[in-house]
Amino acid sequence: MGLFCIAFVLASAATVGARSRTQSCGLLAFATHSDEGAFDIRALAATCRQARTVVAGARAHPVTHPGAVDHYYTKDGFASIGHDVSHGKEEVSSRCRRRGSVITFHRSGT
Q: Cα separation of 40 and 38, whole Å?
């Protein structure tokens, strides 16, 4: 019983510590042989698996209007807003929030 309690406390502390830091979650390609996708994916108080799922939801909302001020969508309870940061190429910088969790990423392509 004592070892179980110690293991549970250590596991809980590790989970809380990992979720309270921003972690880099890499990139996600939306199409093969294309620059369409998301990069610089970061998660705060969320797992990379959650972040990649939320970011994948952006694919259904293409960047078809460069110069548009905001792009909105929701996925798995996260509300996301993207701002056009195009510099001659379609690119949106997005921030998604759900309670204390934040996911940020940049996406390119149509």
A: 7
